């Protein structure tokens, strides 16, 4: 029987005998243990299927249509999710409910994206990516239109903007990545990182553009019509983009959950590292408006920095695509977490003027985008494209905790706008744990001294996440210069 290799699935393509890349175990670690031959055969079959399909990927052609379609779908799905705070601000100002209640509409939407990962993966495999993407687009557009009639009923809004939107976003997200990063229906192999980067950039650009557009629509037409216009625009562009999605090769009908992946130290380390990583990655864009206000800057500066963060995130997604194809996807994920930790521990805590804040926003935003866009490529490269639909869904399910801890803690203020009436503007403080730390050291207006402990908390979590990914990287290849 062939010996078990410690290389990745991609490196195995050139080896003389296939071996279970995801197990990544040395034979001397299993002394006295006999692995069932049928298990090894099943694992090799998956990796062989991955290598065979990857070797025939056209590296372009209709694949670029898929990338463009995915860009549009992620623009409306994740971009709208990132812009929820704008709609929430208007709903609070209209007196629909208090912050503690409305905050969980956005949290529910974000959490469902993660919690339904495995279930929606099954739906996509049963229906195909085109049908699933069109269903997701219909859910997103429909949720906005339905929400326009529920702006006076917070319970109904939980269902329309929370549940329906969350289901739609997850279906669209999974369908968009399915044909590039997941299952054996792939158009890219060597350029998979670049394709992912361009596609995921849609969420960053969408988040910035939709935020400004919604704010303008709400001021001119009100919340209800802003919802309706958003819904109509989503349906008119996302449905055609979804229709253009198609699989090159039908997906193999694999199991609901592949529990044996948890026997792999590499998978466990990636699972834990990415789960921890979602907690600090959401803190900067939510703390920046509060922090700049505490330093005496205008609210426009805070809003501009948040928009800059979204644009930097989009740029980071594209740049990380180039990087993952050159230095390896696991190395790129690790680099993104190192940059996140360094900026949170060294740059942000010393930023008392605008210039270092801009540096922090640009670097941290790019690292943030790189983490989310490179993870699907990393899972695909290490565990094989034929099983990555299941593997990625399992990993994303571990992000529920980080997504639930996105929006529950707020600070608000009132001031007069150009139309001479009081408007309540709400600034998101970020994850509750970081918010509680902030409150304990002086609150939102406490200046740099109050914010530093929360910054160090977020930076420490990013560092811990990076350590887990580093462990996974050395499980795959101990050479510091290896492309992993």
UniProtKB/TrEMBL annotation:
GO terms for cellular component: membrane. It holds the Pfam family MFS_1. It is a multi-pass membrane protein. The keyword Transmembrane helix applies. The chain crosses the membrane at residues 61-79, 99-119, 131-151, 157-181, 193-213, 225-245, 266-288, 294-315, 327-348, 354-374, 386-406, 454-476. Residues 1-35 are annotated as: Disordered. It is found in: Membrane. Residues 266-484 form the Major facilitator superfamily (MFS) profile domain. Keywords: Membrane, Transmembrane, Transmembrane helix. It comes from the Eukaryota. Coiled coil: none annotated. Gene3D superfamilies: MFS general substrate transporter like domains. InterPro entries: MFS (IPR011701), MFS_dom (IPR020846), MFS_trans_sf (IPR036259), Proton-linked_MCT (IPR050327). The keyword Electron transport does not apply. SUPFAM superfamilies: MFS general substrate transporter. Its main location: membrane. GO terms for molecular function: transmembrane transporter activity. Belongs to the major facilitator superfamily. Monocarboxylate porter (TC 2.A.1.13) family. PANTHER family: MAJOR FACILITATOR SUPERFAMILY (MFS) PROFILE DOMAIN-CONTAINING PROTEIN, MONOCARBOXYLATE TRANSPORTER. This is MFS general substrate transporter. It comes from Trichoderma citrinoviride.
């Amino acid at each position: 029987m062939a010996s078990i290799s410690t290389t990745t699935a991609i490196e195995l393509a050139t080896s003389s005998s296939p071996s279970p890349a995801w197990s990544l175990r040395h034979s001397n670690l299993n002394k006295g243990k006999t692995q069932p031959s049928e298990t090894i055969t099943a694992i090799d079959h998956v990796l062989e299927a991955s290598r065979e399909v990857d070797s025939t990927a056209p590296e372009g052609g209709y694949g670029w249509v898929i990338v463009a379609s995915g860009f549009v779908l992620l623009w409306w799905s994740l971009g709208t999710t990132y812009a929820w705070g704008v709609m929430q601000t208007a709903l609070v100002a209209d007196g629909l409910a208090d912050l503690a209640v409305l905050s969980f509409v956005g949290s529910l939407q974000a959490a469902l994206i993660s919690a339904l990962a495995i279930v929606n993966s099954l739906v996509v495999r049963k229906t195909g990516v085109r049908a699933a993407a069109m269903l997701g687009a219909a859910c997103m557009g429909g949720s906005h239109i339905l929400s326009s009639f529920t702006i006076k009923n917070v319970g109904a809004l939980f269902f329309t903007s929370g549940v329906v939107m969350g289901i739609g976003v997850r279906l669209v997200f999974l369908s968009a990545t399915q044909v590039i990063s997941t299952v054996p229906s792939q158009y890219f192999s060597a350029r998979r990182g670049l394709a992912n980067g361009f596609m995921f950039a849609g969420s960053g650009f969408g988040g910035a553009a939709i935020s400004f557009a919604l704010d303008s629509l709400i001021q001119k037409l009100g919340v209800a019509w802003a919802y309706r216009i958003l819904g109509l625009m989503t349906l008119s562009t996302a449905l055609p983009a979804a229709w253009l999605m198609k699989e090159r090769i039908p997906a193999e009908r694999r199991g609901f959950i592949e529990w044996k992946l948890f026997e792999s130290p590499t998978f466990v380390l990636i699972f834990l590292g990415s789960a921890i990583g979602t907690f600090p990655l959401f803190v900067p864009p939510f703390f920046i408006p509060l922090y700049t206000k505490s330093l005496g800057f205008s609210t426009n500066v805070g809003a501009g920095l948040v928009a800059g963060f979204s644009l930097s995130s989009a740029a980071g997604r594209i740049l990380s695509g180039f990087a993952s194809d050159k230095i390896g996807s696991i190395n790129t994920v690790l680099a993104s977490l190192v940059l996140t930790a360094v900026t949170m521990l060294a740059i942000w805590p010393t930023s008392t003027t605008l210039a270092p804040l801009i540096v922090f926003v640009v670097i941290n935003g790019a690292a943030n985008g790189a983490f989310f866009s490179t993870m699907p490529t990393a899972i695909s490269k290490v565990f094989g494209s034929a099983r990555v639909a299941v593997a990625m869904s399992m990993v994303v399910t571990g992000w529920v905790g980080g997504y639930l801890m996105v929006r529950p803690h707020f600070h608000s203020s009132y001031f007069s706008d150009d139309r001479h009436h009081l408007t309540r503007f709400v600034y998101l403080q970020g994850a509750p744990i970081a918010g509680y730390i902030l409150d304990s050291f002086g609150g939102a207006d406490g200046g740099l001294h109050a914010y530093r402990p929360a910054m160090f908390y977020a930076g420490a979590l990013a560092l811990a996440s990076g350590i887990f990914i580093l462990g996974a990287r050395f499980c795959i290849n101990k050479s510091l210069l290896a492309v992993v």
